[in-house]
């Protein structure tokens, strides 16, 4: 079993064959009360979990948004887009079969973003990221990451899995930054800077 925190640095993923990262959030009325607030909470807000596969420092594949299996072999799978935050448990997940990731992929950066226009971290509450050891189909949680509610940013680099020879390491990043909404190149630059 691995236990992850930002302070302890990268953890070896020895024995971990499948890794899952999930994001969950709750819709909020925000500063609106009454009918407008209820409508806003019913509509929810759309946050996106995105995994970007890197070759050296260059982004080459993206899981999330409208790409659920970017490698084409099931090694990097996205659960699909939850556009409201309604429901229990994780709203979006990415699962990585570490042994099936092509050898030229040197790292995978996991990002949560208010990517689509009109979405916002400020329109969501209780945002959290969970990291699971999904080896053998289990869902053993190994980290729970909570970004600051004070951020005015719309992107959070959650974690980074990095190849170390034939093995992998996982590091909690939990750093926020600005991403131009609707701009995939801005998203890629944000991932590459991590």
Report on this model:
The model has no long low-confidence stretch (mean pLDDT 84). The chain has helices at 34-43, 184-192; strands at 11-12, 18-27, 48-55, 58-63, 76-78, 92-97, 107-113, 124-133, 140-145, 155-164, 167-177. It is globular, with a radius of gyration of 16 Å. β8 and β9 (140-145) form a beta hairpin. With 194 residues, it is mostly beta strands. It has a six-stranded antiparallel beta sheet with strand order 1-11-10-7-3-4, with helices on one face. Strands 5-6-2-8-9 form a five-stranded antiparallel beta sheet. 38% of the residues are buried.
Keywords:
194 residues, globular, mainly beta, five-stranded antiparallel β-sheet
Task: Specify the oligomeric state.
Answer: single chain
How many DSSP helices? 2
Number of strands: 11
One letter per element, helices H and strands E, the order comes to EEHEEEEEEEEEH
Low-confidence stretches: none
Percentage of residues assigned to helices = under 10%
The structure class reads mainly beta
Report how far the terminal alpha carbons are from each other. Answer: 25 Å
Strand order of the largest sheet: 1-11-10-7-3-4
Beta-strand content = 35-45%
- Mean pLDDT score, rounded? 84
For the CA atoms, what is the radius of gyration?
A: 16 Å
How does the major sheet shape up?
6 strands, antiparallel
Shape: globular
